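agent> fetching stored inputs for the carboxymethyl coenzyme *A docking request
agent> found them:
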Amino acid sequence: MSRRPEVRCVEEEGPLGKLIIVPKGLENVVPDTTAISGVDPKGEHTIYRGYLITDLAENANFYEAAYLFLYGQLPCEDELREIKRKIDTYRAQVPEKLFDALKLVPATHPMYYGSFGVLFLGQYYAPEWRFDDDFLYDHALRLIAQLPVIFAAGWHLSRHGTFIRPDPGLDHPRDVLRMITGRTPSDLAARAFEVSLILYMDHGFNASTFTVRVIGSTLSDMYSAVAGGIGALKGPLHGGANEKAIEMLLDAKRRAEELGKPLEEYIEEYILEKLKRKERIMGFGHRIYKIHDPRTDVAAKYIRQLKDGEWWLKVLKRAEEVMWREKRLPANIDFYTAVLYYQLGIPVPMYTPVFAMGRVVGWTAHYIEQVKNNRLIRPTEKYVGPTGLKYRPIEERCRR
Ligand code: CMC
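agent> prediction call returned; pasting tokens
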């Protein structure tokens, strides 16, 4: 059920043969196949390598899910031990020089630490980049392990000059949450965080993953590709939406308090005002999920168990009712993780970096799939600018 007018492809003759004009934003365009993740034929469920995302988020741990993405099946015991050993070891092996360099990055949005840090690491490996399996999988695991350390260290270093070092003795999600918040999380908090990372790991040819594949298709290195993915994810129409969603909810909460109204009721008035001003409600709408984003159900289960969970769910559900009634748009995962990360005490500007800490698993798997069966991704434009202009010197062309 698309809100846009009909989307369809048109064929026309171009200077180099037949052109296929596809819908703007590439909606419903299939540029390649993938065996990594996608949506079932009804568009209701996301599938990770054959498994429902909800099944894996409920039952798998971070290492099992990462193994599944990279190697195509769930691990046996020895394989699980080995991927855990590697991720935990690499987490503690970020070069000291990178921490020194992060001190120099201005304290703006922390997504910049990610792209900066990843490119810094790439300087070590990119000059001798190779495409054999051992090399590619090893660097995928390094990126998965080290990206969260870069974000957490950058965030703390740029603010107070110190950071929390990784502890390879802790499980990856627990250690990462500890490095971000500075507190050892409870079992429930660590699991809620781990589940959110799994929910974020991949989603077909989403904008950042497609960016990674485009860069990979030039046979550039994995670090450059992941840095590009981080840049794409940062935008508010993609991963940046979880930060914008909590900012909106907290703004609504403040106003509701000023007016002495319960937020779970006031949220309706607040959203209607925004819609009247033609503003987008962040955390709603999705290119693929037009009716319901199943990832929100899994996140809701953890929201319910954390601080003020029942109350937050009332607010979220009311907002969903209003948005469905007014715009026929469902809430997406970012509306729910916005609240979940607030409950976990994660600083708001770190929400999108956390999305990247999960999505890096998908990015690296897609990079590998792309380079192993590669063709340069290079569409053709339809030029609609002027033609036939002739160069004139500046003194002639600027005479007014
Ligand atoms: N609030 C209000 N109106 C909306 C929203 C929204 N969140 N999303 C779409 N619309 C309207 C839009 O104004 C347009 O209306 P009209 O046809 O009257 O001009 C119509 O719905 C179609 O919008 P679109 O931008 O063409 O749809 P799209 O499929 O290109 O956009 C989207 C998908 C996710 C970019 C969009 O829904 C959006 O901007 N949502 C808010 C940002 C957000 O939550 N992003 C996270 C996406 S899920 C996690 C991820 O993958 O990163």
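agent> quick read of the result: Residues 241-343 form a domain with the Cytochrome p450-Terp; domain 2 fold (CATH 1.10.230.10).
agent> awaiting further instructions
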